[in-house]
Fold this sequence. Notes:
Elements: H1 3-6, H2 43-51, E1 62-72, H3 79-95, E2 100-111, E3 118-119, H4 123-130, E4 137-142, E5 145-146, E6 159-162, E7 167-170, H5 176-186, E8 211-213, E9 218-220, H6 221-224, H7 284-295, H8 300-303, E10 331-332, E11 337-343, E12 357-364, H9 366-369, E13 374-380, E14 388-393, E15 399-405, E16 412-415, E17 422-430, E18 440-448
Parallel strand pairs: 1-2, 1-4, 3-5, 4-7, 10-12
Antiparallel strand pairs: 6-7, 8-9, 11-18, 12-17, 13-16, 13-18, 14-15, 14-17
Helix pairs in contact: 2-7, 3-5
The chain binds zinc ion.
Amino acid sequence: MTNLQKILPIFLIFLNISLFAQTDFSKYQHKHIFCKPWIGNNAFLERYLSDIHYDNDSTPMYAVPVQIWAYGGENLPTDLEIKRLIISLNTLFTANNTKIVFYLSGVEKFQKKRFQKFGYFSNAPIQSHLHHKRGVVNIMLAGWLAKPGKKNRNLAFTGCYNHFSNTIATIPSGSPSVAVHEMGHYLGLHHTHRYYHRGKHRQESVDTTVFRRGLFARGRNVEINGDGLADTYAQPYLRRVTDSHCNYVDNEGVTDRWGNRYAPQTDNIMSYTQNKECRSQFTRMQKSVMLYTLENKRHSDRWRIEFSGEKNGFASLPDGYEPDFSPRAATALPLGSRQHHSFHSPLDGKGRQLNDEDWFEFSSDHVIKHIHQRKIVIEPGLMEFSGIRAVLYNQDLQPIDTFNINTKDEIIELDISDFKDGKYFIKVEQLNDNRTTIPSDYFISLLAVDLPKNLPPVIEYKGELEVLD
Ligand SMILES: [Zn+2]
């Protein structure tokens, strides 16, 4: 098992929502745009965590919309690959209790022969200029992210972050930690080996007591040099000095400029370990930097999950099955399952609310059919009710039937015992005339009718993330 798989049994389910205490964010907002107040003073980051009540509970503070721009030829990224990317982000950000969750706000695909080998230095700058949205994190997902030069067209970057266009670029076949690493850059983090090849003036020292008295910065070297964070230990470029099992292999006795041998963390997400599956951790200071940076992003007010006390007293988070935005990204509904889903409140790039759609897939299997009569049940959930519409499709995506739930005590019961063998889809969405998404929820089950009357226990998301390479 890889490290990543070990930490997987996670996931936020919206039942965990608690009302988020009011926090005085404005005190920090837009105050330090040009300087990083923690450089030479990491105590700032600890104070910040305390001020935003970081340790009070594990309730997410931000739900950040992600726009995917997919490029490729025959290798155009699929909906399933887009789904995996969002799940990778949420898996590691949640496991590290960053209090940040991500959801898919939109997808646009561009399939062209010339995008088969999408050039990071040729196609990407033009495309990121043509296609990006405000108010969301823009991610370019290309089937192949070619390095520059004719010789290098067959070499791919797994992920890059462009500081100027604020765009992340990545490929679907990289390790799940790649997108998380790039998101770390977007949220203000540097590499943990930053400036390791520089002199004493920039390099982070192994000895944490080394003091620096510079013209502009004064304090502990580990809080000024390198990535400026004391709890990410000094480290060299790890790719050459780690093995595939995440061990530090220091055969050559690599030392810093002060002559001390390194003893680095080999699991940090912002490092360059040889095996990218080793990267599973953000340190406490890194989390503080990310939350601080996020608070200072231009659109973060819209992304914050806050108790408003008004009409829609709470915000709903994307449930652990998201994103299930299309038939190709549908959630499987196995026999005997009862799942709990939410209609969260996705935003587009202009801050407008989108309608949340959940897609499900189930199969009618002749062998099992003769054992049990079967039905699909959709019931309103526990939160404020706002109407549910379910549309049933055959495997060619032809709509077969539409069902509505108009009041809280109705349910949909759909007998599928006589359905022909094959695959079917269901799209569940909110019935809303005024186009406002009220965070609400529902249960969906695929049941054998002649089983005992008691409903099976609710199956929450298990976080089974397939590792691609
Ligand atoms: Zn990087």
